[in-house]
Amino acid sequence: MKREIIKTLDGSTTIHLPDWDECYHSKHGAIQEAYHVFIKNGLSLVEEKTISILEIGFGTGLNAFITLLEAQKNNLSIDYTGVEAYPVEKEEAIEMNYLQELKAEEFETEYKEMHDCSWEEKNVFNPNFSLTKRKQFFQDIQDKNTFDLIYFDAFGYKVQPELWSTEIFRNMFEALKDNGILVTYAARGVVKRSMQEVGFIVKKVAGPPGKREMMISFKKL
Asked: Coil, strand or helix: which one is 101?
């Protein structure tokens, strides 16, 4: 499938798949979307200082990288697991302009290491952040009561509806600890109903630039 790097409206880059007309991040702003969805409406809601995170769709590593930056800034201890069935090539990820746009050039080594480090084992970057990358299909995730927070960042429902199924969200529900949170850029009614069917309490909130709404889901038992 053809792939091209494009610049989004906030100046940051993303990968575009012309055959699907789908991007790894919002065309309205990759970095803006990542911060709005996963930090403002995800990480900031977790009260603990030691946090385990599962990302569905590791992709270019943008969400993991901004989470590392937040861990450094706020002295958090984050154990991050990124799941990706079709990993982005390291050379392609390095072409992203996140270091410059985030003014985070001092973390160039960490960003490159995210894409260079081994899969299927924990890689400790510093006392604030560790990363485990898993090459895995989302439907095969079998973690139980493991994560405080899930970043659900799969490709959109219009191109891969099977990634937004009740089966997938049941796996997500079981992977979360009690009182855990799942956050996603999506806001479709069919997705909301699948989440509710497995037990999530779903809240719609204002979306990132270019999107009216998004969803936060809570595991309350």
From this structure: helix
Cα of 180 vs its chain's centroid, Å: 15
Nearest CA-CA partner of 218 in 184, 168, 167, 190: 184
Write down the pLDDT at residue 220. 85
Q: How far apart are CA 142 and CA 145, in angstroms?
A: 10
Asked whether the beta carbons of 188 and 12 are under 8 A apart, the reply is no
The predicted model scores a pTM of: 0.96
Pairing of strands 129-134, 77-83: parallel
Q: ∠191-67-151 over CA atoms, to 5°?
A: 15
Summarize pLDDT for 65-83 with one digit per residue, the tens.
Answer: 999 999 999 999 999 999 9
Token pair listed for 89:
């090539």
Q: Cα separation of 216 and 166, whole Å?
A: 16
Mean pLDDT of the chain: 96
Could you give the CA distance from residue 35 to residue 208 in angstroms, rounded to a whole number?
9
Q: Rg for the chain (alpha carbons), in Å?
A: 16
Name which of 145, 143, 137 is nearest 56 in CA terms: 137
Distance CA 17, CA 4 (A): 7
Smallest Cα–Cα separation from 177: which of 202, 146, 151, 132? 146
Read off the DSSP letter of residue 156. Answer: P
- In sequence order, what are the beta bridge partners of 203? 216
DSSP string, 11-27: S-EEEEETTTTEESS-T
